[in-house]
Amino acid sequence: MQFINAPNILDTINKALGTYNPRQIDRDYYTGFTTEARLLHKYEIGHLQSVLSVGVRYSTELTRRRQKGIGTIGSDFNLEITKKQSPDSAEYAIDLHLNTINYAVFAENLFQVTPQFSITPGVRYEIIDSKMTGIIPNSATNLAFPISYTGNRNFPLFGTGLQYQLSHFAQLYGNISQAYRPYLYSNVTPADQIGVIDPNLKDSRGYDIDLGFRGHYKNYLHFDVTSFYLYYGNRVGQLTLAKPDSSTYLYTTNIGNSLAKGIEAYIEASLWKLFVNSQSRFNVSIFNSLSYDHARYVSGQINNAGKNVSLIGNRVEGVPDWINRTGLKCEYKTITTNFQYSYVSNGFSDANNTVFNSTGSTGNVPAYHVWDWAFNWNFLMHYHFSAGINNLDNAKYFTRRINMYPGPGILPADGRTYYISFGIKL
């Protein structure tokens, strides 16, 4: 139950009706079933153990989606439909049955080439059958018309992993794998009046390559450093386009191909045990998780107000360049407390890299800093007590902009929050 409109359109009394505008009612019903069977077989090749894993998977998902019903004018929660869309139409402007059936078979084999070196190739074959029937409103006349969509896809996906044990304490690893992402029902059914869908939307494909080095020193030091290269083809996203009257709307389409290159690094060190007393029941440790993600469009363009505008070099929406989380943890017997500091750099919510939009549905997402504290105490064998404060300094920030409920506009993050819990384990 919602009044959904751009933030610059106030929820005020409609002079023609003499009341507030009717609320919009949306209702979804979900049914799903999934089952999977796996077989693991260990065998030896030249006194070295290898492992074969094979499996099958079946799932079916059914969604009944009913949206844009005309509800009441009150402020209380009420799902009553007060008016049909037209005398001969259904109660909801959007009334859809969405069904997806997925079959998959997969296999991978770990070949232990030497005691230190292993190769793990794998393959997965996917079959996806999708159907959509029902009615949606015509974008020009806003009158309901029937639709029937069937999408059948089948494709193989390949991947290989490598691992080399340098010593008891460190190893090198690398992986390359293909990826596939079909566009979703939500991509082809606009949720509001400011969304337009490309009728020629395509599925996305890509691949990922990573190379890493990880290890540990006793129980005092743990680390993992990974570099990655991710290609994302036919990326589905949203562009901010202008109408002839200069108003803007969001256009969902295949906006281009992107590359993400970067590094992820994690380290945790038990300082007290490493430098003071390795047998002490007291310990102070620090940890840091750092991610740098240089995600940019390498192809793609849009037509905006009659001009072709290139997306090459634009930042990928929803992907900040830097994410860093660092913390300090103190332990004594069964008591643990830790502080964590998080930093996320700025980003954009659309492929155009729109800085400002009066509706708030697209634009810059500023960088933010957050502090958190947590405490845990296990006592008398079966009891534990936990407490914490999230967003200690009550930072005002947001991570997303959306064009559907509860938007359009920004989604503000929670301010300072507290929690206390007590548990018994018998």
Short description:
The chain is mostly beta strands and 426 residues long. Helices cover 2% and strands 65% of the residues.
Principal-axis shape equals globular
Query: What is the chain-wise order of helices and strands?
Result: EEEEEEEEHEEEEHEEEEEEEEEEEE
Instruction: Supply the number of helical segments.
Output: 2
- State which percent range the strand residues make up: over 45%
- CATH class of the domain at 166-424, anyone? Mainly Beta
The unreliable regions are none
Please explain how this structure is put together.
The structure is a single chain. With 426 residues, the chain is mainly beta. It has a domain at 166-424: Maltoporin, Chain A. It contains two helices and 24 strands. It has helices at residues 185-188, 271-275, and strands at 13-14, 19-20, 24-45, 48-70, 92-112, 117-137, 144-165, 170-181, 195-197, 204-217, 221-242, 248-270, 282-299, 301-304, 307-310, 322-332, 335-344, 347-348, 364-365, 368-379, 383-390, 398-402, 409-412, 417-424. It has a 16-stranded mixed β-sheet that branches. The chain has a two-stranded antiparallel sheet with strand order 1-2. The longest helix has 5 residues, at 271-275. It is globular. The model has no long low-confidence stretch (mean pLDDT 88).
